[in-house]
Amino acid sequence: MIEIDDDSGTPPYEQIRSQIAEGANSGGMPVGTKLPTVRGLAADLGVAPGTVARAYTELERAGVIETRGRKGTFVAAGGDAQRDKAAQAAAAYAREVTAYGIDADEAVALVTAALDAGGVRTSAPQHVR
């Protein structure tokens, strides 16, 4: 179930996006799970339809969900492929920072700063499988 925390500093679209992504990645929302319509989820959460649409658009770009025309929006099988690409990018980053003589703590701090600058909440550690 997706919930919006009005007291959070995280924008509602990001709360929606991250909860769906986590559900897809954890198996809580298995591949093929049908998601509510944009308008339906917006009404349930008390947010504007554009807020849900933005979350869905970002999730679709990342390969986490897919829209099948009038049939609806579903959790896609592409989430693992996206995770593999992210792991490859992380490995490339690790090689680069090692070549520059940057230690692991500083490399992680650089990533955290970049994520924070991009509006991704990093205050709580995220589990990666």
TrEMBL record:
SMART domains cross-referenced by the UniProt entry: HTH_GNTR
Stretches the record annotates as Disordered: 1-31
Origin superkingdom: Bacteria
Protein name: GntR family transcriptional regulator
The keyword DNA-binding is assigned to this record: yes
Alphabetical keyword list: DNA-binding, Transcription, Transcription regulation
Annotated GO MF terms: DNA binding; DNA-binding transcription factor activity
Record organism: Metallococcus carri
Pfam families on file: GntR
Keyword Glycosyltransferase included in the entry's annotation: no
Occurrences of domain HTH gntR-type (ranges): 10-78
